[in-house]
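Troubleshooting: if your tokenizer reports a length mismatch, compare your output against this known-good record of 157 residues.
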Amino acid sequence: MKSVELGQTGLCVSELGIGTGTAGWDGRSDQTDLGFEPLVRLLRYAHQQGITFFDTADMYGSHAHVAAAMKGIDRASVVIGTKTVAHSRSEAERAVRRFLRELKTDVLDIVLLHGVTEKGGPERYAGAGEALSRAREQGLVRTVGVAVHSRDALRTA
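Known-good structure output:
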């Protein structure tokens, strides 16, 4: 599988990634609906095929699946992206600490503010963004960003 640098992050990922959140929200997704062990096996199979980017999010309820799939896999061989719906600094700080525990890792590769839809959204989430940037400075997160879900939010971002 061909690998590429992910933007200007310094992270190298396979051109094809595997997501865990199709129709995902409110702690479930089509992938988590497969069942715990089937999704863990699917993630491990994807890695065996050369996929090195796993996409997850708090709202998908798949952190535990990804953590279980990573058992026996060299952590440095996978880039894990996750997302938070935190709006405030304190919510984002708590989310980072919890995500580290749930994903059983010392560093989160990518953390995005999730589902920003409105124009000006990134400014409304400034406290959360500042907390994620601080977590990056502390070495808890490698890179941060915004997962926008509308053109207006994309223009603002």
